[in-house]
Every structure is written in structure tokens, then in C-alpha cells.
Amino acid sequence: MANGDLIHRLRALTVELESVGSEFASRNVLHATDVRALIALLDRSRAGVVATPGWLAGHLGLNSASTTALIDRLESRGLVTRTRDEADRRRVALHVTDAAQDMGWAFFGPLIDRVQTVAEGFSDADLDIVRAFLDQVITAVGDLRDS
């Protein structure tokens, strides 16, 4: 397999990122699932899309009771709020708080800065190729997970 080294490099990157995520969870006394939920909610917020408990459950592969416990934990820590969805008052919307964003930025900001520094060494065309490759790998892995 000529491109076998790619999967090994992606795996090595995944191990490093998981290590960083574990350290973040440990420092902030969070469960691994709490961190995954916060990342998902932050991404959803950045995209301007409302997150609901049902969406979060599906995204994380959790049942209703586990999702409620997760949201309760995050809410009790001041990291997430629940409100009625403005478009459909029957639906609950989840929002990450400024405290959650600040906590994430304080820890992951240096990582983001380092990746941006690395990216500065590549042309915009090169970075477009990297983005396309990573997007397709993410989709392929997600499809495999869902099958």
C-alpha cells in the first residue's frame, strides 16, 4: 500500500490530539464525553446552527438518559445553558457559555497558534489540498463508523 504511511501519520496525529484532549479533561475535571460534547457544541455554534439534546445524543451515540446526565453536568459547571429554541418553543436549544469558550481557548489557544504557524509555511493552494484531503478522510471515517 503506497499510501499506508498516511494512515500511520493520521493515527499518530490522533494519538497526540487525544493526549492533549485528555490533559484538558484532567485539568478541568471533565469526562472524555464532556470534552467531546463541548467540542461538538462549539463547532455547531460556530456554524450558526442550533444544537438540541437530541442532536447531541445522536452525534455522540448516547441514549436519552446519558445525554441528560451529560447536559446536567455541563450546566452545573456553568459550561452550557438550555433555552427554548426561538424557532420552535417546544424544542430545547443548547448553548456553550463564555466560560466554556474561555476555558477552551486558554488551553487550546497555544495549540491553535502552533498549527497556524505551521500553516504559514504552506501556500494557500497547498492548504486547500490539505483541507480537501482531511475533509474526505473525516467523511470516510464517519461513514465507516456509521456502517
Topology, pairings included?
Elements: H1 4-27, H2 32-46, H3 53-60, H4 64-76, E1 80-84, E2 92-96, H5 98-119, H6 124-146
Antiparallel strand pairs: 1-2
Helix pairs in contact: 3-4
> According to CATH, what is the class of the domain at 19-112?
Mainly Alpha
Question: Helix share of residues?
Answer: over 70%
* CATH-level-2 architecture of the domain at 19-112: Orthogonal Bundle
> For the CA atoms, what is the radius of gyration?
17 Å
Q: What is the arithmetic mean of pLDDT?
A: 93
Which percent band covers the strand fraction? 5-15%
* Topology, number of strands: 2
Order of helices and strands: HHHHEEHH
The CATH topology of the domain at 19-112 turns out to be Arc Repressor Mutant, subunit A
Report how far apart the termini are. 24 Å
Shape: globular
Count up the helices. Answer: 6
Q: Which structural class do you get from the secondary structure elements?
A: mainly alpha
Specify the biggest β-sheet. 2 strands, antiparallel
Description of the molecule:
This is MarR family transcriptional regulator. InterPro entries: HTH_MarR-typ, MarR/SlyA-like, WH-like_DNA-bd_sf, WH_DNA-bd_sf. Residues 3-139 form the HTH marR-type domain. The chain is mainly α and 147 residues long. It is 71% helix and 7% strand. It has a two-stranded antiparallel sheet with strand order 1-2. Helix 3 crosses helix 4 (64-76). It has helices at 4-27, 32-46, 53-60, 64-76, 98-119, 124-146; strands at 80-84, 92-96. The chain is globular. The model has no long low-confidence stretch (mean pLDDT 93). The protein has a domain at 19-112: Winged helix-like DNA-binding domain superfamily/Winged helix DNA-binding domain (Arc Repressor Mutant, subunit A), CATH 1.10.10.10. Strand 1 and strand 2 (92-96) form a beta hairpin. The protein starts with a helix and ends with a helix.
